[in-house]
Amino acid sequence: MALRNPSSFLNPLMFFVISISLFPIAISPNAETLSTLAPGIIWVITMLSVLLSLNTLFHYDFDNGVLEQMIMSHHSLSLILLAKTLAHWILSGLPIIILSPFLGMALFLDSQSINILIVTLIIATPCLSLIGSIGASLVVGIKNSGMLLSLLILPLYIPILIFSTSAVSHAQSNLAIDGQLYFLGFILIMSLIIAPFLSALSLKISLD
Amino acid sequence: MSKLKVNNLSCQKGYNLLFENLSFEINSGEALRVSGPNGSGKTSLLRIIAGLSSFETGQIDYDSYKLNSEKYKLDFLYLGHLASLSPELTCIENLKYSSLLEGESIEIDYSLALQHVGLENYENDLVGTLSAGQKKRIALSLLFISQSKVWLLDEPFSALDSNAIRIIEKRIDEHCNNGGICIFTTHQECNIKNLKEISL
């Protein structure tokens, strides 16, 4: 479906690439400055581009009445939503993971830090989609809900941002990063367990 | 023989009391037409029976199944006034998706279902390119696939031409003759046997 309407996933991806490419021009082409800022820049832009794509997660299905059929289905709504969230991650998180080594190089990240950046993205971008699905299901019936969605979801993204950027920064200084990765892994497992149920519940409330 | 029994149902939206103490009973083989002015709660009633909306008081019994249980959902087909079709998918893909959600077998002749509603040449056309009436026909072609016993149809005849209306009326008759139940809302006169009516 997304391939037939590519703008739905290409727009956030273009935002990701263009925003990161602008930083060397806006701040300084100096390698030391950019490599210090790189973990924060890449992770903040990742979060914002996932947030941009979340608006479309349930919006079209709500407008077309397909969400009602999902709720009426005898299949578990949580599982259907988990599948939808996985599809969202494949279209929003996965391309970011694939592009991140190139953008990391553009910001003068060393190869070890790029590896850690990829690991944090692999663990944490599914969390962004999962946690985001809860917010998206809560605001599904509200017009122009982008700002409300950001207010709901961004505070929940903060721990992911802290642990991810901290892991990459520590890798740059050759410090241990086990703790940060364990925390990100914990957030991923908790999101996998809780998010589909909460999304299903909030979707039923939104459509009531 | 299945029986759907609605007892003392009341529904309120915001500060608006749509209906209260609504009771009716419908047996397999019967159709029920829900009529009433705009905003009287016809759609709300169907959504409540479908398990999509909550209600203030009352009880809904369908055989021994609990409202919203897996078996309850398996026996119910709800077609809302939105066509429930994705514009990026073709007619056949939409039918496959809907019938999978409904829990039907994937070994179904979808082309035949489209043929019944006169859209046999549109199998691979994207739904987004079709007219409102054609979309409605595709949504209603699910009636030729569905194995559900209770059909809840919200304004099934809107946007349809007289020929399509006759086809759907005939299909509802067939469904009831096979022991099914159909509850639908409409403002139009219709020609369906074993028809009960309630007005909100």
Descriptive key words:
heterodimer; A: 208 residues; mainly alpha; 7 helices; 0% strand; B: 200 residues; alpha/beta; five-stranded parallel sheet; three-stranded antiparallel sheet
Main sheet summary of chain B: 5 strands, parallel
| Overall spatial form of chain A | globular
Q: Strand portion of chain A, in percent?
A: under 5%
Oligomer: heterodimer
- Name the average pLDDT of chain A: 91
Series of secondary-structure elements of chain A, N-terminal to C-terminal: HHHHHHH
Terminal Cα span of chain A? 27 Å
Helix fraction bin of chain A = over 70%
Number of helices of chain B: 6
The fraction of residues assigned to DSSP E strands of chain B is 25-35%
Please give the order of strands in the largest beta sheet of chain B: 5-6-7-3-8
Mean pLDDT of chain B: 85
Low-confidence residue ranges of chain B: none
What is the helix fraction of residues of chain B, given as a range?
25-40%
What is the radius of gyration of chain B computed over CA atoms, rounded to a whole number of angstroms? 17 Å
Distance between the termini of chain B: 27 Å
Taken from the alpha-carbon principal axes, the silhouette of chain B is globular
Query: What Rg of chain A, in angstroms, do the CA atoms define?
Result: 18 Å
